[in-house]
Amino acid sequence: MTPDEIVTLRQELSDKSPEQALEWAFSHFDHGKIALATSLAAEDQVLTDMISRIDQHPTMFCLDTGRLFPETYETLERTRVRYGVSIELLSPERTEVEPMVLEHGPNLFFQSRELRKLCCQVRKVNVLGRKLAALDLWITGLRREQAITRVGRSMLEWDESFGLFKLNPLHAWSTDEVWRYIRKHDVPYNPLHDRDYPSIGCAPCTRAVSPGESIRAGRWWWEETEEKECGLHWHDGKPMRAKDVK
Ligand code: SF4
After folding, report:
1. Which of 99, 121, 213, 241 qualifies as a FRET site for 184, CA 20 to 30 Å off?
2. Is 230 a catalytic residue?
3. CA of 108, closest atom in ligand 1
4. Can you list the domains of the chain with their CATH numbers?
5. With a threshold of 0.85, does the pTM exceed it?
6. What is the mean pLDDT of the chain?
């Protein structure tokens, strides 16, 4: 994919709503080669609702790190029932997890940034890479407003790291727009959102936020802001950080 071709496609999508962008994706790509990567977060639930109106058997998957909140699994179950969709739970390789935990312990992420990244690599990034290898386009719930590390997001990107298109239908939506959609369509959502968890990841690495804190302040709260990405989303060959944002 050349930069010119990506620019052309971006222009084609520039004035489209999230629903129109999803319809574009499902009309331009083989349905079996498109998937929603869902963490059951509010944005992903909006996309699940939208996609289930377009495709009766969409491919959806969730990275089951083994450290998710019970509320996240409950939300997954309610979503399966509500929409009649299958959501693949992708587990990390036992041969990668067991030696890591044996050497560094189950809560290695608190010891150093390097070990936190190792845990995210084994439990998330490697699992995602294996799944994306079979796809042509993945759909994400990324929004620019979520973090300074995500300001540069656009509707359509070429994911250099994994070698496929990435569609971010909600990239320009505000938090209010997400929640207006959820209320209007009675979309099931993770009850942790009602307990001051605007961003929900693994249980040991996520806490509630206080009034005035940023959306992602509760993720890896012991680390510096500019380093707070897990490596799933890359830009120019490296995870997006504050210093990469022009
Ligand atoms: Fe490990 Fe925490 Fe990353 Fe989850 S968020 S994979 S528990 S370091």
Report:
1. 213
2. yes
3. 8
4. 3-244 (3.40.50.620)
5. yes
6. 89
Q: What is the pLDDT of residue 240?
A: 46
Give dist(CA 62, CA 85) in Å, integer. 13
Residue 227, pLDDT above cutoff 80: no
More confident residue, 220 or 229: 220
Q: What is the pLDDT, as a whole number, of residue 80?
A: 97
CB of 241 within 6 A of ligand 1: the answer is no
Residues 6 or more apart whose CB falls under 8 angstroms from that of 68 comprise 202, 203
Whether the predicted pLDDT of 243 surpasses 50: no
Say yes or no: CB of residue 76 within 6 Å of ligand 1. no
Q: Is the CB of 117 under 6 A from ligand 1?
A: no
Sign of torsion over alpha carbons 69, 186, 62, 44: negative
46 near 141, Cβ under 8 Å?
A: yes
Judge if the beta carbon of residue 67 lies within 6 A of ligand 1.
Answer: yes
CA of 137 to the centre of ligand 1 (A): 25
